[in-house]
Amino acid sequence: MNAIDRKTSGARCPICGTAAEVAFRPFCSKRCADIDLNRWLTGVYAVPVLEDEDEDGLRPADGHPDEQA
Ligand SMILES: [Zn+2]
């Protein structure tokens, strides 16, 4: 059996999957923490703004079969 490394607390880095380091939780290193931060800053994780609130009910009906291939 593998002994559990106390330094890692069993968590895994969400960026690369390596065992997370306590100092950089939940990441394994500052590099991965920076990657995650950069994703936030660049909007990868941003919630998309829904602009079609159809204020006037002008939203086209569903069912557009004319998808461009
Ligand atoms: Zn990592």
Q: Could you walk me through the main structural features you see in this protein, from its secondary elements to its overall organization?
A:
The protein has a domain at 1-44: Erythroid Transcription Factor GATA-1, Chain A. The chain contains 1 helix and no strands. The protein has one helix at residues 30-41. It binds zinc ion. Residues 13, 15-16, 18, 27-29, 32 line the site of zinc ion (ZN).
Question: How is this fold's topology laid out?
Answer:
Elements: H1 30-41
Bound molecules: zinc ion.
Number of helices: 1
Kindly report the average pLDDT value.
77
Distance between the termini: 53 Å
**What best-fitting shape do the alpha-carbon axes yield?**
elongated
Largest sheet composition: none
Helix content: 10-25%
- The level-1 CATH class of the domain at 1-44: Alpha Beta
From the 3D coordinates, which CATH architecture of the domain at 1-44 would you assign? 2-Layer Sandwich
Task: Count the E strands.
Answer: 0
Rg of Cα set: 21 Å
Q: Return residue spans where pLDDT drops below 50 for at least 5 consecutive residues.
A: none
The SSE string, one letter per element, is H
Structural class: mainly alpha
Bound small molecules, deduplicated: zinc ion
Give the CATH H-level superfamily of the domain at 1-44: Erythroid Transcription Factor GATA-1, subunit A
Short description:
By secondary structure, the chain is mainly alpha-helical. The chain has 1 helix and no strands.
Question: Which key phrases capture this entry?
Answer:
mainly alpha, Erythroid Transcription Factor GATA-1, Chain A, 1 helix, elongated, binds zinc ion
